[in-house]
Amino acid sequence: SIFMPLVDFSAIYLSMTLFTRFWEVNMKGEPNYYPEIVYILILPFYAFSWILFLFLSKLYQGEITIQKLFKGSFWGTLCILIVYFIVPENYRYSRAIVFFGAMSAWILPFLIRLMVSFVFKSSYQMSYFNNLKAYIVPDDTHLLHMENIFSKYSDIKLYFSNQSNQATDCILDI
Question: What's the whole-model pTM score?
Fold first, then answer.
């Protein structure tokens, strides 16, 4: 589907545009420091490069993992930096924009998927939420209280076992 790459592209481009405007005013001291070509050509090129490498890392196919997200963002950033250092100096703009974009290209797709996985829980899951387990060792006085709290959530299953005399092991299978 083309929907998620478009959402990612839009989020990355918007965040970079806002950051570039912030950078112009607060770091460069001028509201229109960068020419319009930055907003029309350079920032879309950066965002497209990250989306292309996220696609090549198979983020948009099959299981969604942090490794795919990081790999695609890393290779996209590397490609952008290579192009950045090859082009003539008058086409080089702030490296801070590239590095902010790199952070956006990793964080925003993750946050978008996190929100989508919670909103559409049954149809869209990220692999790092499947089979998440936490081990809690409560004392006997807190055990009933924990059972009451976690019984309200249907997707959390509790398994108890007495493996030691000192405490009850509680395994949360989320």
Answer: 0.69
